[in-house]
Amino acid sequence: MMLIPQGMAYALLAGLPPIYGLYASTIPLIIYAIFGTSRQLAVGPVAMVALLVANGVGELAPLGSEEYIALAILLAMMVGLFQLTLGIFRLGFLVNFLSNPVISGFTSAAALIIGLNQLKHLLGIEIPRNNHIHMILSHAYNAFSETNYITLSIGISAIALIVVLKKMKSKIPGPLVTVIISILVVYIFNLDSLGVKIIGKVPGGLPTVGFPTFNVDAMQGLLPTALTIGLIGFMESIAVAKAIQLKHKNYKIDANQELIGLGLANIGGSIFRSFPVNGGYSRTAVNDQSGAKTGMASIISALLIILTLLFLTPLFYFLPKAILASVIMVAVFGLIDWKELIHLWKTDKRDFSMLLITFFTTLTFGIQQGILTGIILSMGLILFKSAYPHIAILGKIPGLNIYRNIKRFPQAKEFDNILIIRFDAQLFFANTHAFQNVIEKEVIKRKGLQKIILNAEAINSLDSSAVHILIDTIEELRKNNIKFVFACVKGPVRDIMEKNRMKDKLGDGYFYNSISEALEKHNIA
Amino acid sequence: MMLIPQGMAYALLAGLPPIYGLYASTIPLIIYAIFGTSRQLAVGPVAMVALLVANGVGELAPLGSEEYIALAILLAMMVGLFQLTLGIFRLGFLVNFLSNPVISGFTSAAALIIGLNQLKHLLGIEIPRNNHIHMILSHAYNAFSETNYITLSIGISAIALIVVLKKMKSKIPGPLVTVIISILVVYIFNLDSLGVKIIGKVPGGLPTVGFPTFNVDAMQGLLPTALTIGLIGFMESIAVAKAIQLKHKNYKIDANQELIGLGLANIGGSIFRSFPVNGGYSRTAVNDQSGAKTGMASIISALLIILTLLFLTPLFYFLPKAILASVIMVAVFGLIDWKELIHLWKTDKRDFSMLLITFFTTLTFGIQQGILTGIILSMGLILFKSAYPHIAILGKIPGLNIYRNIKRFPQAKEFDNILIIRFDAQLFFANTHAFQNVIEKEVIKRKGLQKIILNAEAINSLDSSAVHILIDTIEELRKNNIKFVFACVKGPVRDIMEKNRMKDKLGDGYFYNSISEALEKHNIA
Questions:
Q1: Can you give the pLDDT at residue A294?
Q2: How far is B442 from chain A (nearest CA, A)?
Q3: Angle between helices B255-271 and B66-88 in degrees, nearest 10
Q4: Of A457, A504, B132, B498, which residue is most buried, by most CB within 10 angstroms?
Q5: A209-216: long-range contacts at Cβ-Cβ below 8 A with a sequence spacing of 24 or more?
């Protein structure tokens, strides 16, 4: 029931005639219900993806033209093929490399852009479509005097009604109620003659069937958009699917199977004139609240839309565009996550700044630049964390056989000629330099150092670079009369050391089961 | 002394007149000696960079033309600016993200390409410059009948002489000796009239001073080459500098200061008509063996080259090109690392295949594609390692208060209704899904599970995504009557949990100092 107004609204947002929102709410839902792993996920037109469609296709063809429609459908095919490929090659894990703050910042900014782009429908004025909020706001400010107050009142009443019904957790679907009421009001009071813009004729009947026209030039132009939608759509879907699955726990979500389901839904949809779809927050929640237990719920929704397409489209003639704008605005402003922003400010300044950077990049430079910034920030953080692992200098807690980080345990005492060091990560090429640097720094700092004990209990694996570095370090230290020994080496690491014949190369007396054992052999305990 | 023949040889390799190799061996050395941190590193023309110059500039201008020379000098300026920028912004750590096997595979392939490109000089035949070895070999095969056997004999004798002197660890510089002998032989026996190609007139005098001509189009064309040389050159330099520093240990290498030193050397060099330079393996080793203790050694070398430029260039007239080819071939074939390949095959199949992939990509698709593949492989591995941390299910060693990975310790016993799990990495956005997946999998596998104990001793930090996931997981598990508790949480993690008010949210009884304590509270010990 929510699907009808939302579908039409998102089609409009995507720059397409409203009927395409209904097309996108049929076949893809059925295909996803068959191939997807979530039982409650509501697939269909979604605000963020609709915006990305308008953004990407809008650069290649005039909004709403035949060519534009053809490109949007071709885009669905490309998104589908991309997602299907990712799924088949089991690359679903890639999506984990976008951090939550980055996603939150991006989503909030996109929601703001989407919502403000609806201002024109709400005010009944002309504002050129734009992805830069300062431009939207300045246009709106200049054209504000032309506001159609009847349109505005309808829009604001609709927003109020939807919000109140939502707050009351009523079972009455707000969007549908406002749609019905508004159609009646416009029809009865003839409001369209007073300048309230209405949807007009919505052609009935089922979509024609056929492959989109392939065109290499167009496909090249659409590629960045297809990749962005493929990833963002999947990310949104999987996030929603996981959240809902966690509530039920009677089935499992498989990220790769989800990709395959979404991919096939988009490919199949594109054959039936659908634009790109994915799983969305709001309808999934409604789906779940209404007690959907299996994919049948989606199939029933799709069949209802098909019935609508066949018989009910004339009813939408008097639907005001401002109502669709209200539906979109309520949906997307709910996505703006102020709470998370405040929470991060209090608890994690680094994540806070990542959120803020992504948010402002998206707002000022655009959607795709925003998501790219997010990817770079996330990757950069992963690389940084890999390169700078936690390394602690240990001291002995007096009276106990326990060794702790001297920075956190001031009572921990170091030995005069012995350095005990703990490396809290696997040792591999990205962090060998950090390992070398700390050894070098400590050796230079301590005169008369005789022994270094590496507490290796947190080291789970060594790669070939790490083995080289260890042997080099040990040999160089030996030349300086410093003995480097290992304590608490784990099984897998011991295996690698044996394969590399480290024991043969180094001789005896390099491996101990505990720090105290390594100390005893040094006649200090 | 090695610098003269090598400098001229590498200039030739870079597609420049030999004199430019001498220009590149003056000012940059002096500048590096002032700003660099290594005391033995020999900066100057280097084979790999020379090849990259020929590769990059060769696409924009005819080899050896005036325009070509101007572009090579402009390239040095760009490389210098790039390195200086990296150094100033302290981005030297970026270089650690290329793994050793990748560097080894790339170096070996580049060495092979460089060496085989010298075949034409060694055989005295015409082979078009090419970066694809199958093309070089097929050209050489076709033109083999035209081989000038005198040239070939000179070349092979020179190679033999250099190799023997090197093997004997003689203090006599092989390249210089062969240069002197060959000049005398050609001069005395008039070999140039028999088809032995000689260097010919080398113009004397110092390089003219002046900024390279900036040209936006050319700079755009050169940009990928400049970035590649900037990184590769720095990587080679720092690897050599660190290796030598490890032998001495009386000073420290600072990667960022090295970048600044190299950057200034290239910028300054480019003002004195030098092409891109960096620190090279062979001459640094010689420098060190001859007892260089400070940067003064480099300054003296540079002054000797200046004297050569002023007075000795006419002496090189009869120098056969085959000799320079021999010098290059011996130098670069030494870089091919068969030992590492065999070693990795035996000890680390993953690193072995990374080496092989980079090697063959470089050989078949080209230098820049090779290094790009290497970067992607290395990054991919870092991301993969971040996404799939080591997670162990623990069991109790009977009779002891010790809990170990049940996969490695078959005697470790699990408890019926309790799952003890150890997560061996910091928990952050890239691996939260791995954490969730393992919990989910184990919960589904075990009926009647009542408690999950997370041994958090290896977790050094939590980001905001991790905090969310932990709270969500704990609450969802609670709904299923499974209690999730923490054991051995480290100080920094405890701080983050407190900031996020996890104790307030969860209530008491979630944090224990040890696994046995967490078990006791459950009335099972």
A1: 75
A2: 12
A3: 150
A4: A457
A5: A209/A271, A209/A272, A210/A271, A211/A77, A211/A270, A211/A271, A212/A70, A212/A73, A212/A74, A212/A76, A212/A77, A212/A270, A212/A271, A213/A70, A213/A74, A214/A74, A215/A74
Residue A7 burial (CB < 10 Å; 0-12/13-18/19+)? buried
Among A275, A234, A260, which residue's Cα sits nearest to residue A84?
A: A260
> Residue written as tokens 């506001």?
A147
Per the CB < 8 Å rule, is A424 touching B458? Answer: yes
Mark yes or no for CB contact B386/A390 under 8 Å: no
For every residue of A402-466, DSSP letters joined together read -EEETTT-TT-B--SSEEEEEE-S-B-TTTHHHHHHHHHHHHHH-TT--EEEEE-TT---B-HHH
Cβ(A122)–Cβ(A329) under 8 Å?
yes
- Bridge partners for B106 per DSSP: none
Q: For chain A, what is the total number of helices (H) and then of strands (E)?
A: 23, 8
Query: Cα distance from B391 to chain A (closest Cα, Å)?
Result: 10
Give per-residue pLDDT as tens, A92-134. 877 777 788 888 888 888 888 888 888 888 888 887 777 777 8
Rounded Cα gap, residues A51 and A46, in angstroms = 9
Closest by Cβ to B99, choosing from A249, A465, A500: A465
Q: How far apart are CA B363 and CA B370, in angstroms?
A: 8
Per-residue model confidence as pLDDT tens digits over B73-85: 999 999 999 999 9
Q: What confidence tier does A522 reach under pLDDT thresholds 50, 70, 90?
A: low
Over residues B13-54, the pLDDT tens digits come to 888 998 899 999 989 999 998 998 887 788 899 888 998 898
Residue A80 has pLDDT above 90, yes or no: yes
Q: Among residues A16, A15, A18, A1, which one has the least CA distance to residue A324? A: A18
CA distance A232 to A226: 10
Q: Which residues contact A475 (CB under 8 A, 6 or more apart)?
A: none
Which residues are CB-contacts of A390 (< 8 A; sequence separation ≥ 6)?
A424, A425, B426, B460, B461
Which carries the bigger pLDDT value, residue B507 or residue B512? B512
Is the pLDDT reported for residue A524 higher than 50? no
Residue B133 burial (CB count, 10 A): 17
Tell me how far apart the alpha carbons of residues A360 and B50 are, in angstroms, rounded to a whole number: 43
The H-or-E segment that residue B220 falls in is helix B216-248
ipTM comes to: 0.72
Residue B97 is nearest to which of A430, A464, A480, comparing CB atoms? A430
> How many interchain CB pairs under 8 A, A with B?
138
How far is the C-alpha of A275 from the C-alpha of A74, rounded, in Å? 8
What are the residues facing B419 on neighbouring strands?
Answer: B452
Nearest-by-Cβ selection for A93 from B98, B387, B440:
B387
Best mutation target among B348, B384, B440 (most A Cβ atoms within 10 Å) is B348
Cβ proximity of B486 and B456 under 8 Å = yes
Beta bridge partners of B484: B452
